[in-house]
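Dear Dr. H.,

I hope your travels went smoothly. While you were away I took the liberty of generating a structure for the chain from your last submission, since the lab meeting agenda had it listed for discussion. I wanted you to have the full record in hand beforehand rather than looking at slides cold. The sequence, exactly as received, is reproduced here:
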Amino acid sequence: MMLQQSEPDDYVLATGEARSVREFVEIASSHIGRGMGWRGTGTQEMGLDAESGEALIKIAPRYFRPTEVDLLVVDASKARQKLGWTSRTTFAELVSEMIRSDRTSTSKEIASAR
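The corresponding predicted structure, in token form, is as follows:
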């Protein structure tokens, strides 16, 4: 749809939903067969493998943005208004697609290294 416009323009494609890193990690880990548990709060919070208790995710304050905001939500209204575009992919479907893609490229890397 973007490429069919008479004049070039920039468009943002997004669901307009706010999601957390925690939600992403939980969905992604479920796709690789690892359940997640959480322990601690704030900068001491850790994501643990539910079966082994191994720490898989730790908060790293050095990666915080200097002007951290509480909520980031993308506005795709321009694409909706000018192109009639709406998101049809759910967050869970997107995470699943990302995991599948990573598994495919990792499998190819492993195969080519042999």
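Two observations you may find useful: Strands lie at 36-39, 46-49, 55-58. The longest strand covers residues 36-39.

With kind regards,
E. W.
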